[in-house]
Amino acid sequence: MKIIGLTGGIGSGKSFVAGVAEKNFPILHISTDEIARRQMQKGGVSFKGVVEEFSGYTDNLLCEDGEINRPELSRIVMNDPELLKKLNAITHPAVINELYAIIAIEKDRGKYSAVLIETALLYEAGIDKMCDEVWYVYAPIVTRSFRLIEIRGYSPEKAEMFLKNQQSDEEFLRRADRTIPNGEDVTEEDMIHIISAYLNS
């Protein structure tokens, strides 16, 4: 069973690529964002550590239902690299442990030919070390900005801030094994052909 890391900048369309792969091939799609989100919920392995570390920075870290206020947490760490490192130090190891557990189970089951790990922080979290291949989803910066503003509803200023804080395309391209073009003119049928070619080569 091949382990593939799927990464790319915000707005590049990683989820679209993963969805096409999951729907058309015997591939298990795992989103590290979904794992991290679940692990930060009450009772999750990251909840206590995040609350203890960040409750001193705001009075609004917890919502009325006791869950972590994710937009507020994002606001706290967004412009402070040291605080972001602290958050990642809590969440990344727990995510990686769950990834290894899922992969071990699926290897024994033998249901899938590949596992596709969708993650924005592939290299930062060290997830690339568990992958046989890394696929980089590429979209022009103008397309990514459009998607953030028109589809996600970001303000132009917020979109620019997120894009500015991303790893450069050159760095992604240098480190990835495969590049998946995902500009605005790429159709689902195009994506099926691209994924099929990569899986079979």
pLDDT < 50 runs, ≥5 residues? none
What string, H for helix and E for strand, traces the elements in order? EHEHHHHEEHHHEH
Proportion of residues in β-strands: 5-15%
CATH superfamily grouping: P-loop containing nucleotide triphosphate hydrolases
Q: Per CATH, what is the topology?
A: Rossmann fold
- The total domain count is 1
Largest sheet: 5 strands, parallel
The CATH level-2 architecture is identified as 3-Layer(aba) Sandwich
Overview of the molecule:
- This protein has helices spanning 14-24, 32-39, 47-54, 70-78, 81-109, 141-151, 156-164, 169-175, 188-199, and strands at residues 2-7, 27-31, 114-118, 133-138, 178-181.
- The chain has 201 residues and is of the alpha/beta class.
- The protein has one domain (2-199): P-loop containing nucleotide triphosphate hydrolases (Rossmann fold), CATH 3.40.50.
- The protein has a five-stranded parallel β-sheet, sandwiched between helices.
- Helix 6 (141-151) packs across helix 7.
- The longest helix has 29 residues, at 81-109.
- The protein is globular.
- It starts with a strand and ends with a helix.
Care to give the gist of this entry?
With 201 residues, this protein is of the alpha/beta class. It has helices at 14-24, 32-39, 47-54, 70-78, 81-109, 141-151, 156-164, 169-175, 188-199, and strands spanning 2-7, 27-31, 114-118, 133-138, 178-181. The two termini are 15 Å apart.
